[in-house]
Queue: 2 jobs
Job 1
Amino acid sequence: MLGRTGGRSGGGALLTDEGRRFLRAVQLIRRELHRMAHTVSIELGSDVVIPALSWRHLMRTSARNMLLCKVVKITSGAVNAEVLLDVSDTIQLVAIITEGSVKNLELAPGKEVFALIKSSFVLLAPAGEVGRTSARNVTGAVARREDGAVNSEIILDLGSGKSIAAIVTKESANSLNFKVGDQASALIKASHIILAID
């Protein structure tokens, strides 16, 4: 990085070619760590191990789902903005956040963000049985199901190193008969998605 001394016209910094290569390397490493965290989440179903493997050690949150996304489009409103996100080449989500948050996070098309979604906010339905709804949905294969006394945790593999976890009642999981390998849709309201940046 090359610096310029400040003054009347201000200072600044220019990124060298070497600096650009370094930042690209960091982005690639982060994506690979994200994939590793995804694999651990599916295989072990434990958030305890994941912080040692990825960016999550920098952020403590109760949200079970943290998806690395890219901003595609921002539609501004008087108070809130709609942010269209690419989760992968085939999956998109929409988040509704305040205009103030858009400015504070310096969001713009092409910027990478983390979408945080509580597992209890994720509704599940067998693929093809979603019907008409205002919630956006993503489809994946059931990668793991863990039943408790009252609730069941179901993880969908969305492909591209991404997964999403949902907590539903055990009665609902049994009624819908979710099994590993089944295709299922996760329904997520735009207002239930929190955006975060590094």
Job 2
Amino acid sequence: METKYDVLGIGNAIMDVIAPVTDAFLTDHGMTKGAMTLVDQPRALTIHTSMRAASTPTEIAGGSAGNTMVGIAKMGVRAAYIGKVGKDETGEKLAAGFREAGLEFSTVPTESGTSSARSMIAVTPDGERTMNTFLGASVEFGHEDIKKSEIQAADVIYLEGYLFDSDAAKSAYVSASEIAKAAGRKVALTLSDSFCVDRHRASFQHLVEHHVDILFANEDELTALTGEADFDVSLAKLVRQNIVVCATRSHKGSTIMVGNERHDIPAVWVEKVVDTTGAGDQYAAGVLAGRAMGLSWSDAGYLGSLAAAEVISHYGARPLTSIHELTFISRPVLKA
């Protein structure tokens, strides 16, 4: 069967609502400056409305896996995304935002009445970001959102670990992985967050052992998954399960293990780190896009470093500058 997509991502579809506010705005709404707080639907809608009244927010379709897929599409690689949205204005904007970014997006909105997920990011004059996140309809993702034909049409499916907080999503991930494997496709997983791994370690371990071909994680997430304190011991333990491990290590760069082959990839230097949000997401975008282009694992890893460097040089989790236009490229290789 011919593939239609190089990578298909599955994750939380979340609208990033970014607005400049005063310190008084935070006080009036009882927000702790610089904190990230999960909020319920009434509070989310109240804050969203207040932000719109105070200024003109920038609204960007996002979520971890969604941002990775956008990064992949911006590199000219075929990408699609599955993420649950509500039947509301924000849901319509989420769908439109993903499509405008070059993604195939056909998830049917929920009929439950739950509003679409959104993260209200209040930016005060000192540049501090205060976040109030409502997961909403995104956590209602389940088996009904898995379309066999879509999974079969992707060379790689990419699963977001944050969805593991939902039992229905866990089960849907297994089904999607089984469909992918039966069609001869690859399954990639990002662990997303070490606290998420701590909450669902056994489920993650089962998915990795039986279904995953490519694992993305940072050092903390990797050691949380294996229960080993040492990074290299964790790598060795996972490689024995016959999976490719792509581990980010902050300023140390990243390590990609393919069987007994170890590729230590340097981080790309940037003049000023502005916002580290989305660094791991764009690293995964670079690696997966690079492999789709036919790059070696080492060069794909370096493309991941470039993508991460670009996104941390500005606010926001999406790339703003094409990889080919970056001025801090220092490695001459990157040929398909």
